[in-house]
Structures are given as structure tokens and as C-alpha cells.
Amino acid sequence: MHCPFCRHPDSRVVDSRTADDGASIRRRRQCPQCSRRFSTIESASLAVVKRSGASEPFSRAKVVSGARKACQGRPVTDDQLALLAQKVEEAIRQSGQAEVEAHDVGLAILQPLRELDLVAYLRFASVYQNFDSLDDFEAAIAQLRAEEGDAPSGGAEASADASPAS
């Protein structure tokens, strides 16, 4: 690690601690040349392979952006979207792969979004599950209603979100 003050090509680690609930490590370093101290944060890299074959670092901001589009006009807060992005990143990291397909990131968004807002889930699922017709929407809504009957949690609010307008 280069010293940010004198650009010396080496530094020594003085202290290490976990940060971000164990997702990264904060290291306190000292430059042997100028003796100044500085901090670094290290985390395991996670790359997303796009359809074009290009690879880019995983971005929670992109997850939030995509989910925000599906949640447009819905009662969903920025904090809820940030938590959703964290859940998605954790799920992807649990797969143990250093590189994941962009489509897999989209699929990983589905379950946390479903728990957050059923209408937003249907909007997002229509893209990632390639809904081609109204029948696809009707089948997805029927499945949600059937599962809603099995699990009463989320009750009236979720049913109201999934029911068609009169």
C-alpha cells in the first residue's frame, strides 16, 4: 500500500478491525518513511459479468436504482431500498463466487423485493422472468394469492396491493 502522503511504496499495519458487520477490514497503517498514519478499508471484490461479457464491480447503488424503478409510486423508503441492496449483496456473496452474471443479480433481487412490496415485485419479475402476455401476469398473481393464503403474514396490505382495481 502506497503512503498517501509521501507515496512511499510500503507501509506497515498497526491495527486491524472488522467493519461493516464483518464484510470488510479496517486497517490502521503507518508509513516507515514519513511515520504518518492512515486507514484503509479492505473488502473481497465481487464482479458482475454483463451480457456483453464485460466485467464490473458489484454496485449496491445499481441494485437500489433498479429496485427504485420497480417501486416508483409505491410506499417504499430509501432505507428499505438500501436494506434490500444489502440483502442482495449478502445472498450473492453466500454463493461463494467471485463473479456472477448480471441476470443472476436481477434474480437475487426478486425475493427481497417480494417481501418489501408485491406490486414492485410483479413489475420487476415481469422483466426478469420474461412475462410475454397478460396470462403471465395472471399466473404470477394467482401464485402470490395462493401463497398468501398459505402464509397469513402481510395479510390485508399485501392482498390489497395484489388485487385488481375495480
Task: Report what the structure shows.
This protein has 166 residues and is an alpha+beta fold. The chain has a 3-stranded antiparallel sheet, with no helix packed on it. The longest helix is centred in the middle third of the chain and has 17 residues. The protein is elongated and about 70 Å long. The chain starts with 11 loop residues before the first strand and ends with a helix. The relative contact order is 0.09.
Secondary-structure content class: alpha+beta
Number of helices: 6
Strand order of the largest sheet: 1-2-3
Largest sheet: 3 strands, antiparallel
Helix percent band: 40-55%
How many beta strands in the DSSP annotation? 6
What sequence of helices (H) and strands (E) makes up the elements? Answer: EEEEEHHEHHHH
Query: What oligomeric assembly is this protein in?
Result: single chain
Distance N to C terminus: 63 Å
Key descriptive features of the protein:
single chain; 166 residues; alpha+beta; 3-stranded mixed beta sheet; 6 helices; 6 strands; 48% helix; 19% strand; elongated
In short:
The chain has 166 residues and is of the alpha+beta class.
List the helices and strands and how they pair.
Layout: E1 12-19, E2 24-30, E3 37-43, E4 47-49, E5 55-57, H1 60-70, H2 78-94, E6 99-101, H3 102-116, H4 118-128, H5 134-150, H6 155-162
Parallel strand pairs: 4-6
Antiparallel strand pairs: 1-2, 2-3, 4-5
Helix pairs in contact: 1-2, 1-4, 2-3, 3-4, 5-6
